[in-house]
């Protein structure tokens, strides 16, 4: 059987804070048994004719000061609505500076306190099965949630005496979307619980049956 294909998008040439170098190797390694990961910084890969051949798209884009084009936006929306899987990691939430993509993701970025040690806990879901609570040095992203998206919270982090959402999933048309906040830099993807989360998120988003 041919391996499924995953498209990983991010920045190699001009990253501000989150280069794809290193992260690409870790994600490819985590998903190795599941799918072939093709890494690119070319946003034209989001166009319908390019993205349609993939079972999963992972967005690690860094677009704080710019947006993808209307054609690229339409390509990603129609890909997911037509049954494609999308995982948005950490900085990929910056795609949400386009309103249509904020609704696709379920939120837009709302700033973050300084990087530091965080405690994470999971909520019950297929994606979080067997993933325990864990500690990790991360950027504690905050979000403005889209009121129209019915999301299921998967992951939370503790800060200032309260718990904040750090991961969620939902359906969009025929497709599935997962957002995971951990992912500031390569060391995050070496954490065993993060590896498990990402692998199970990929299976869920791309509708890959779990072997018994």
Automatic annotation (TrEMBL):
Q: Indicate the segments forming the ThuA-like domain, all copies.
A: 35-205
The record's Gene3D superfamilies line, in alphabetical order, gives: 3.40.50.880
Coiled coil regions, renumbered to chain: none
InterPro entries recorded for this chain? Answer: Class_I_gatase-like, ThuA-like
Any Pfam family the entry gives: ThuA
Q: Could you tell me what this protein is called?
A: ThuA domain-containing protein
């Amino acid at each position: 059987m041919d391996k499924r294909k995953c498209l990983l998008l991010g920045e190699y040439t001009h990253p501000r804070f989150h280069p794809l170098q290193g992260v690409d190797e870790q994600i490819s390694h985590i998903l190795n048994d599941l799918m072939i990961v093709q890494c690119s910084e070319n946003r034209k890969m989001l166009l319908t004719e390019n993205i349609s051949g993939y079972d999963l798209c992972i967005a690690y884009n860094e677009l704080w000061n710019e947006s993808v084009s209307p054609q690229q936006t339409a390509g990603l929306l129609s890909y997911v609505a037509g049954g494609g899987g999308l995982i948005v990691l950490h900085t990929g939430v910056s795609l949400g500076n386009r309103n249509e993509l904020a609704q696709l993701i379920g939120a837009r970025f709302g700033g973050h306190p300084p990087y530091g040690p965080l405690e994470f806990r999971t909520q019950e879901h297929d994606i979080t099965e067997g993933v325990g609570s864990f500690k990790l040095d991360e950027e504690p992203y905050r979000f403005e949630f889209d009121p129209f998206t019915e999301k299921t919270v998967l992951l939370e982090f503790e800060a200032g005496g309260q718990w904040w959402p750090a991961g969620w999933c939902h359906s969009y048309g025929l497709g599935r979307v997962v957002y995971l906040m951990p992912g500031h830099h390569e060391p995050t993807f070496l954490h065993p619980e993060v590896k498990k989360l990402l692998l199970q998120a990929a299976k869920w988003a791309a509708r890959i049956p779990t072997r018994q």
